[in-house]
Amino acid sequence: MYSAVCEKRQEARTAELQAEADRLQQQLGRNVDAEKIVKEHIKLLHEYNEAKDAAQVLIGRLAGLREMTVREVHESLGLLDIE
Q1: Going by fewer Cβ within 10 Å, which terminus of the chain is more open, N or C?
Q2: What is the pLDDT of residue 81?
Q3: How many Å apart are CA 77 and CA 25, to the nearest integer?
Q4: How far apart, in Å, are the Cα atoms of 44 and each of 14, 29, 31?
């Protein structure tokens, strides 16, 4: 009896997950490759991080030239939330 209940719950959960996957695929589009989108996002994140790192190097050099802390330069540039 217990295994029959577990099996029915498992089947119901499988059906729920399949319905959700179908809904998400429809939302994404039938001929859209989700893996390709993820790879593109990862590439863009790498580019963003490289640009951010370069900006931080420049801010560090500016801080040295102005004899300020990096935090003070961030504040002077309105970049308070950047760490």
Answers
A1: N
A2: 66
A3: 43
A4: 34, 22, 22
